[in-house]
Design a protein that fits this description.
β1 (127-128) and β2 (131-132) form a beta hairpin. It contains six helices and two strands, in the order ααααββαα. The longest helix has 32 residues, at 40-71. It has a two-stranded antiparallel sheet with strand order 1-2. The protein has one domain. α2 (40-71) runs parallel beside α4 and α4 (102-124) packs parallel to α6. It has 193 residues and is mostly helical.
Length: 193
């Protein structure tokens, strides 16, 4: 990431904490069905798998954003492409094949593709003495900035309004706040390209 070192380290700390929290949620206990609910035991497994898929994708994005913000061009873009390319393809295929949670999977796929794009653009740019100019497409960078900026505003407004329904704010708000911090991190990285 180009820009002041302090900003890079603050971004890395924020996104690493968010990614670490999402990965720690993978260890949570299975969803316990409510007593006497007819379909709860049947629905608990798929709900848990969907939650784990989301936590894994968000943990990967958070930790990867942190690593990319700190390492900059020290890690070749091809390495990041191999880290984020396959999950992006898997999420796109899952979004096409299964309509449940399609928008959520597409969001994670866009994030993984954006990470691949940023890594390749940062390492492909001409530069000297460790200062590289990003070689990305201004139109694609602008479109990604618009997407992540709009998503951050939408997600932030949902977080502030507390639209979690019957779920307690702490249970619904912290995962949303983590997702929001990763999206803001992506926006900041795109802004410095």
């Amino acid at each position: 990431m180009h820009g002041p070192n302090l900003v890079s380290w603050l971004l890395a700390a924020l996104t690493a904490a968010s990614g670490g929290y999402c990965l720690s949620r993978l260890r949570r206990a299975p969803c316990a069905p409510a007593q006497g609910a007819a379909g709860s035991a049947r629905d608990a497994g798929p709900k848990r798998l969907r939650a784990h898929e989301s936590d894994l994708a968000e943990g990967l994005m958070g930790c990867g954003t942190a690593a990319m913000a700190v390492t900059g061009t020290a890690v070749p873009g091809e390495v990041w492409a191999w880290v984020y390319g396959p999950p992006a393809v898997l999420l796109l295929v899952a979004a096409v094949r299964r309509p449940a949670r399609r928008a959520h999977r597409l969001h994670h796929a866009v994030g993984a593709l954006a990470m691949t794009y940023m890594a390749l653009a940062m390492t492909a740019g001409p530069g000297h003495a460790g200062h590289h100019a990003a070689a990305g497409s201004p139109a694609l960078t602008g479109a990604l900035l618009a997407y992540f900026g709009g998503y951050a505003l939408w997600s932030g407004s949902r977080l502030l309004s507390g639209s979690g329904g019957t779920v307690p704010v702490a249970a619904a708000g912290l995962p949303r706040a983590c997702r929001l911090s990763v999206v803001i991190g992506m926006f900041a990285m795109l802004l410095t390209m």
